[in-house]
Amino acid sequence: MKKRLLSGAVYTALLVSVFLIKIFAPTPWGDLGFDALIYFFSLMGTFEIVRAMGDGISKSGKSVVTLFTVVCVPLCVVCQVLWGYGIQCAAACFLLQAAALLSTLVFCPETNDLKSVGAALLCGTYPNAFLCVLLLTNHLAESSALGGSLLAMLFIFIVSPIADVLAFTFGMTLRKKFPKKLAPKASPNKTVIGFIGGLLGGAIAGAGLYFVYHAICGGFENMYIQLPVYVVLGVLISLVTVLGDLVESSIKRHCGVKDMGNIMPGHGGVLDRIDGTMFASVVVYAVFTVCALLGI
Q1: Long-range CB contact pairs, 213-220, < 8 A, 24+
Q2: What is the spatial distance between Cα 183 and Cα 261, in angstroms, rounded to a whole number?
Q3: 3-state secondary structure of 268
Q4: Distance (Å, rounded) from C-alpha 14 to C-alpha 273?
Q5: Which site among 32, 263, 273, 274 is 20 to 30 Å from 134 CA-CA?
Q6: What is the DSSP string of 104-143?
Q7: Residue 252 to residue 258: CA distance in whole angstroms
Q8: How far apart are CA 149 and CA 28, in angstroms?
């Protein structure tokens, strides 16, 4: 428990540091703290899942995935900051990776088959596709009445952990009275009552973020429109956070591993810590983009 608390404290301190850099450093330099953190997540996360796959991926497949991982995030940052084409760059990188992996069926048929190529494609896509979305979220323009990239990142890194804590609390305290499992094959310890607690935590965190953020930044205009959006977004983040955790658990079960790594004692690897965060980034990016288009 002490190791878990210590590693959690270090992770929290790291997040606070990059948030302070984002707040006080001028744009776009303030965004580079999160960009560097996302790049670290990408490198470590890909290493973890490739290692978990073991012999399911050939050497040529590992080489393609490694090259793609090293190049993709920095290239997307450059394209987004300089020209605003980060999403196009990410799409091109993933297409090139897929083409290169499929080509191994032709050039290395002795060591590659459809299963190994599929496993390699999974390793290259998960977590990198989600982290590219997180990267784009970090560079959202201040064009929406909801706010810009700072608020979006606060949603991802504040609402998701709070929902997790409340889900854990509900599950631990009420599981004897409400023992029904949520997804027993993927994660035997998760209960429906814990899931409900997580949704409640997401709603509370979303509402709390609204009042704190607007109290600091000033103004509560359009409260009756924006507050429900914050609450609904908080619930959605909680929902996909659970989904991300279940997906991660399913992958580990198929790979026959308990944790993806041990870089964070008590938590596991990088992927064990950010599984829900990655899925949350997709929802937050989509909602902020739609709100910007609608002027909400």
Answers
A1: 213/147, 213/151, 213/154
A2: 23
A3: strand
A4: 13
A5: 263
A6: HHHH-TTT--HHHHHHHHHHHHTTHHHHHHHHHHHT--TT
A7: 6
A8: 11
Q: What is the largest CA-CA distance in the chain?
A: 65
Residue matched to tokens 């591993």 = 257
Looking up tokens 């310890």 gives 189
**pLDDT given at position 78:** 95
DSSP state, 23?
H
Which parts of the chain have pLDDT scores under 50?
none
Q: What is the pLDDT of residue 110?
A: 93
pLDDT for 12: 87
Report in angstroms the alpha-carbon separations of 243 from 13, 32, 193, 283. Answer: 26, 29, 15, 12
Structure tokens at 92: 């091109």
pLDDT value for 74: 95
pLDDT in the model for residue 57? 95
pLDDT for position 220: 67
Phi/psi-derived region of residue 295, left when phi > 0, alpha when psi is between -120 and 50, beta in every other case: left
Could you give the CA distance from residue 103 to residue 84 in angstroms, rounded to a whole number?
A: 31
